[in-house]
Amino acid sequence: MAWIALLFAGMSEIIWAASMKQSAGFTRLGPSLITLAGMVVSVALLGWAMKTLPLGTAYMIWTGIGAIGAFLVGVLLFGEAFTILRCSAALLILSGLVLMKISA
Fold this sequence. Notes:
Layout: H1 2-22, H2 29-49, H3 55-78, H4 84-103
Helix pairs in contact: 1-2, 1-3, 3-4
């Protein structure tokens, strides 16, 4: 169950990162509220998952999901560059997540 909570924590991190981009520096109310709610949900789920998962594993998986997800949202929704170098970096992060999961 902790792994599921961690997955949802990472997905919430993606939501708040994308909302923060849309908030225009917290000048737009709707995206700003989504950002704050996403942060609270993300950290609460991370904390719950850390009751049973090791700190390093949980934190790395959480940040990795957020990093890869934010990269994909940036490319797909915000028109950010999808270069071989950026894609390689995302794949390296993904490789680290897989290795961390296997080692846990």
